[in-house]
Amino acid sequence: MSIAAPGVERNYWPFVLPALIVVLGVIVFPWVFTLFMSVHDWNVSGAVTFVGFENFRQLFTDARFYESVLHTLYFTVLAVVLPVGIGLAAALVFHREFKGRGILRGIFIMPMMATPVAVALVWTMMFHPQLGVLNYLLGLVGLPPSTWVYNTKTVIPTLVIVEVWHWTPLVMLIVLGGLANLPTEPYEAAEIDGASSFQKFRHITFPLILPNLMIALILRTIDALKAFDTIYVITQGGPGTASETMNIFLYLQAFAYFKLGYASAVVVIFFTLVIALSLLLLHVRQKTKWNA
């Protein structure tokens, strides 16, 4: 029922306008400006020259850019699959009732509370070939020391170790939320039919928590794709360019080589990649819906 006085027209603009201004200023304008810069040759001297799609043409012939794309995908796959798998296993363990479960849960989620830069600094000291505690622990069990992030072959898997340690608790919490809301009737029927624990997980638990897993997968994929601070603090893209992801590449182009237009073109391509993968995962997420 309308409560407005007769002849008085409702006006919502005073309420909508502040939010609209914020959205335009914080989200829309930066992207429009980035698109504008991507078609210009822009350097720190302030000279701006329209070059059309020349920045994009150079990108697609830049071997270092292709290398950064491969590094990004390699890092993303490992930094998504491992936390999701370990987080699922941890959620199944912590979903069970046992003594001290609350304390252990709290300890397990503590890494997620630390800032990425602080985490990176601590792990940088641990990865040191001579002074790091990790090589000391390897020596205690009779294993040879590792070069960790100082070797081109092991640098990305080593960085993934940090990512797994930092963000596996997030996956665990998301999956635990799904496990807490599971219906009991399918399990009661499975008990009557004599199903084993593995069969109950395979045919009941996993299909029902798959939507939660997909949420964790989407969040981890987006987060891993845009990972920057941890990688930059630990390796700065090295040794050489062995850990130079797209984010590190565009950062160096913009703030080390001062090619702002070229870096903006990288941002446009990177944003397109993130949107494409997100839409694909959201489509898969829709396929995994279930109605309790």
What is this structure's SSE topology?
Elements (H helix, E strand, L loop, with lengths): L12 H26 L1 E3 L5 E3 L3 H6 L3 H33 L5 H13 L2 H11 L6 H8 L14 H26 L4 H9 L3 H29 L3 H6 L11 H10 L4 H28 L5
Integer average pLDDT: 89
Based on helices, strands and strand pairing, what is the structural class?
Answer: mainly alpha
CA distance, first residue to last residue:
35 Å
Helix content: over 70%
Give a count of the beta strands, DSSP E runs of length 2 or more: 2
Mind telling me the C-alpha Rg? 25 Å
Instruction: Please tell me what the overall shape is.
Output: globular
Please tally the helical runs, counting DSSP H or I stretches of 4 or more residues.
12
Instruction: Output the CATH topology of the domain at 77-243.
Output: MetI-like fold
Going by CATH, the architecture of the domain at 77-243 would be: Orthogonal Bundle
Largest sheet: 2 strands, antiparallel
Strand order of the largest sheet: 1-2
CATH structural class of the domain at 77-243: Mainly Alpha
Task: Give a quick precis of the structure.
This protein is mostly helical and 292 residues long. The protein has a domain at 77-243: MetI-like (MetI-like fold). Helix content is 70%, strand content 2%.
